[in-house]
Predict the 3D structure of the following.
Amino acid sequence: MSNLIEDLVAEVVKGVDLETLRISKISKGYYFTSTVLNDGSCGLCYSLFNQDSLESCPYIQKINSFESLDLGKILGFAKNIKNDLERVVGISCLNAVSQHILKAESNHYRILFNSDPIDHIPFEKTDRVVMIGNIRGFLPKLQALVEDVAVIDDRLQDIELPSFKRLETTQEQLKEATIVFITGSAIANNTLEPVLTWIENAREITIVGPSAGMIPDPLFARGVTILSSMQVMEPNEVMRVIGEGEGTPSFKQYCKKYNILRENH
């Protein structure tokens, strides 16, 4: 059976002409890697966990210009589970091509702009919410809506607060969850697919963040109900900010938030 990234790559390859759509630029900063295409579509991928330079990729090192890169080959990098650098470059490219498709086929999806996914979920006070990754600004909002919120983030394991749970309890927490939020960085670090398989009873599963800029169909097929990300409106500014080593708080002003809701949501 094919995995999630393989399905995503196959889906975007079906939807574009790999000869006319080209890569204009790739930028890798401290927090994110970004790819811009020749139509201005921009894809992002969280890459804090990999600090290798683009020039350390043998294929990119050999080319004279980004425009001469083989788009299909770079998309294939997304499937490389053994090379973090290639994977984050590939996922940023996958997201850029996805953004091209989402703009061209916007009528095919239910896309709602300038809102948070929390705004589109009917909560009950008794819901058990699990958040994989401490998504900025979400915890106080969720605590105002439900009584039981669990946050699992491997960067925050030393925080001793009731809502923060140990990493080793992830599977147990997800088994009991009725609503789940997962940071898009789980796509980048190759942990999203196992996390999805641990979810048994959740009626809402949301993937959130700049790294979640891909087409939603393979994720919807795996139970995700909302894909929440950003459309880059000013790619040159975003590339500049990323190249300067800054993260989401610094480049979000050049983007527009959106949520793609699964049909019948």
